[in-house]
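Hi R.,

Here's the chain you asked about this morning:
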Amino acid sequence: MTGTAVAGHPAAQAAQEPDVRRIIHVDMDAFYASVEQRDNPALRGRPVAVGGDRQRGVVAAASYEARRFGVRSAMPSVTARRKCPELVFVPPRFDVYRAVSARIHEILARYTPLIQPLSLDEAYLDVTRPLLPRGSATEIARELRAVIRAETGLCASAGVSYNKFLAKLASDHRKPDGLFVIPPRQGAAFVADLPVERFHGIGPATAARMHALGIHTGRDLRARTLPELTRHFGKVAAFYHGVARGVDHRPVEPDRPRKSLGTERTFERDLYEWPDMLAPVSDMCARVWHGCERRDITGRTVTLKVKYNDFRQIVRACTLMQPVSSAGELLVHAQGLLRGCFPPERGVRLLGVTLSTLLPRAQALTRQLALALEVQSPDSVSIGGNGVGRRSAGR
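And the predicted structure, written out as tokens:
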């Protein structure tokens, strides 16, 4: 097992400073692929890709053995096979991954109620005031990694620091199966030499814009003033300005609401005809609505994603006055968005449907009843002889 690495002074020093938070970022190593290797001993030590071994398939996850050949998630299966001829493809088992994830989150909850899941395989923990006395955040991280391994047979990497940004950087720093600590006095220095591509929240397009401005490292970013960054990057400039100095005030949000629910599908062959596209869109709407019913939520914004065979992608969306109430209604709106993209400019490789602006279904029903009562109330609206609606005076 990889030992604990510490940038600068011991992390226990942070625990002695009352105003310093103690944040852990836990990230399961090659989660989907590791579950498959755990459950099938014949896959252990071999390059494994979770996904479809098809002409139009995509890699959902890759084991570390596969990553050594350059295989990455979201890579077309044909490209992955070309990079690693010995690659073993395994179909995904999302029900299993969700069950294992739930087990891991049960373990994390033994240490703190302040847990913010980011996905099935990673989460932030605020252990400033832990449930179990373990002395330091580093000791908690070390223990929970050992418990995860003992109870699930899987490896987790962990990063410990005084904010979320640095904790996530730390968990990446010694992967796989590593533990790394960035204490308060070393935060700004750790960021200084880091390429901006390594900053969470800076994607390839933003990194290219920064390079064009001569910003290549955290030190370069720190040299720019907030007004200058705002001119180029808008509201997100404040975040860049802060993290370049090792500053991130975002709290761990255990009750952070889900922002969207969606699904997408890549096709074996390009689609050109309306019936061929409508059938998978109908299926995806049913799946999305099933997920909404399980969570007892609904939403007002319907989004359709279309990816063409040249990998160009467009997104169309509509926000409704009232939340969606059924799979059929979701399909009506998705179908309307699809019709606006028809006939397709090129063959369609992928379609996706997402529902967002989410709210509890009980709240949606209350809103709908309130609107219905307002419309039906004889005291709220009267119709004059000229057919013009007018609000009645209070009596």
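Residues 116 and 345 are 41 Å apart (CA to CA).

Let me know if you need anything else.
M.
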